From TrEMBL:
Belongs to the TOP6A family. The active site is at Y165. Residues 252-404 form the Topoisomerase 6 subunit A/Spo11 TOPRIM domain. It comes from the Eukaryota. SUPFAM superfamilies: DNA topoisomerase IV, alpha subunit. CDD domains: TOPRIM_TopoIIB_SPO. This is DNA topoisomerase (ATP-hydrolyzing). Its EC number is 5.6.2.2. Keywords: DNA-binding, Isomerase, Magnesium, Metal-binding, Topoisomerase. The lineage of its organism: Eukaryota, Viridiplantae, Chlorophyta, core chlorophytes, Chlorophyceae. One of its GO terms (cellular component) is nuclear chromosome. It catalyses: ATP-dependent breakage, passage and rejoining of double-stranded DNA. InterPro entries: Spo11/TopoVI_A (IPR002815), Spo11/TopoVI_A_N (IPR013049), Spo11/TopoVI_A_sf (IPR036078), TOPRIM_Topo6A/Spo11 (IPR034136), WH-like_DNA-bd_sf (IPR036388).
Amino acid sequence: MSLSDSYDRLVLWEGETQQHQFSETGEEEEEVSLLQVDEHLSAGDILNRIELVVGQLVEDIATSEAPPTLQMASRAKRHIVCRDEGPSAFEYGCTEAGIQVTNDPWINRSRQAVVLGLQDRVQTRCLFSNQAAGAFPFARMFRVLEVVHELLRSGRQATQRDIYYKLSGPPLFNSVRDVISAIQDVVALLRVPRSLLGICCSSRGAVSGKLYIKDGPMNPWQDCCAAGMEGRSISGNILSIQSLIFRCTAEYLLIIEKDAIFQALNQDRFFDQLPCVLVTAKGMPDLATRAFCSKLMDSFPHLTVLGLVDWNPAGVAILCTYKYGSTQSLEGNRYTLPSLAWLGLRSNLLTTTSRENFQALNVRDRAQATGLMTKLQMLREEAWCHELKLMESTGLKADIEAIYDGPFGMAGLTNIISSAIMRREFV
């Protein structure tokens, strides 16, 4: 059978209360075990799975008197769980009343292997739910399935942005959110990671420092120390990231929020002063950058992982996404950095900063801080919560660039960061 004819992050750590658009449409959700995401299917197997789903739906429409339905993994907010994968586990569920502890609230801090994800729940979606408004999401999902089918048959890949430009336009795709949500629905429907569907991320992350990278056994080593101020680009193709070969002489992995700070540290050759690998995703991390960092830590588990972000709730959200994962899709918790510690920017580095280098928290900042503190308290991240409480009590936030207010100006960034690392001033 043939089929005829990217990025709003639904990240828990953004502090949003928005639920997935299908979670309140009256659809029945059944408590049955969810099949694991299958990472080892061939393109032919996935094509067969797509054609089976489409064929079954067409048959149901043609022959069944009941409204057509689909069984897929639920991404409803109330099914978000926090789980420690040590010998003693704890979970909480997000409900309208807040966070509900459902197990022993003890975390094995020696492992810190705490991840966020979705409970094993399957959702039944009806084509005619919500007074037939459910037909639009169905149509969006099957248009994306059509694109995926085409990609798999041709052996090509496309970024989420490519798919957006191909499909954008009324009445189905009025915004990027419609496309991204449909892609996430396809992943939930097929239970296959998007990397196997021919969908990759736009290249956004960059790396530099004491790391050599090979793209394959026969290719030459690439020295990330020689990558210049902008660093070496991290591929958006997760399959190619998984095949990378590393050689590393670093002791630290420094995750940096801002590209400008990343470039400033590269210009100062910070990695020569302190043996480290520098990585940035230029803001909230994309899946490919997280996959790269996760593979690097799997290869060199001795690395001390540190985060350098703005002193504001959005910066804390970025740290949490790296450390605990996100819930934007079934893949959200596959790539985590459970040993990540917060280096800066923290209040201890702002004691001599003048008032004009701070900004006032806005309404969104305060709402995000409240949501983050609730979740971080459950994760026993007391030091992180303390920083958020300071932001709330003072009503202030600050960018990393506030460090430039010191006596050494921009040149002082390297010394301040390296001194904080050597004194182990991270939490």
